[in-house]
Design goal:
alpha+beta; elongated; single chain; 2 domains
Length: about 180
């Protein structure tokens, strides 16, 4: 009975935690995903002990240790960094009158045309080593889940970043005609 209950708890916790961590919704969600993974690992440990499955027992002891590391990294270290960056963004507006944003936020942001249509999503930004200016964004166009998408270079001068979105003066056809970025 205890093994059956623990097995269901383990299954549910592991599935929920996997979705939370794979979604990459920020350090706190990822960190809490690791907390739930730890509950799942502890439940699998109970199943392993109750049923005499030593491989299940030892693999989940190891996974529980990895989960504790994930908790420290995402709820401790990464959350502190995220809070610090947010405070610095707010400080930049209050003290300097200049709106700054974390470049890390660019990943996944929609790129909207002048009419508000999503024409791409940001993947990364390339920054010049000398001077630190952002030269261009790498954007993804089309496809689903990485299949069928193309990566393009979008000049920084063609965009404005505000309110957690990227706007460009280009339309869908012009974005599709941008230079392709590839691994060669």
């Amino acid at each position: 009975m205890i093994a059956d209950t623990a097995g269901w708890l383990a299954l549910i916790a592991t599935c929920i935690a996997a979705i939370m961590t794979a979604s990459n919704l920020g350090p706190r969600v990822t960190g809490w995903g690791f907390v739930i993974f730890t509950v799942g690992a502890a439940s699998w440990i109970v199943v392993g002990v109750a049923t005499g499955q030593t491989q299940l027992l030892y693999s989940n002891i190891f996974l529980a240790v990895v989960d504790l590391f994930g908790i420290w990294r995402w709820l401790g270290r990464r959350a502190k960094i995220s809070d610090t960056v947010s405070a610095e963004e707010a400080r930049s507006v209050e003290e300097d009158g200049e709106t700054l944003f974390s470049a890390a936020i660019l990943d996944g942001l929609p790129v909207l045309s002048r009419t508000g249509v999503v024409v791409a999503h940001a993947v990364d930004a390339l920054v010049a080593c000398r001077g630190g200016r952002i030269d261009y964004l790498v954007i993804r166009v089309g496809g689903v889940g990485g299949l069928g998408e193309t990566l393009h270079r979008l000049a920084w001068s063609r965009i404005v970043v505000a309110d957690h979105e990227i706007r460009t003066d280009l339309d869908t056809a012009a974005v599709a005609a941008l230079p392709v970025a590839d691994a060669r």
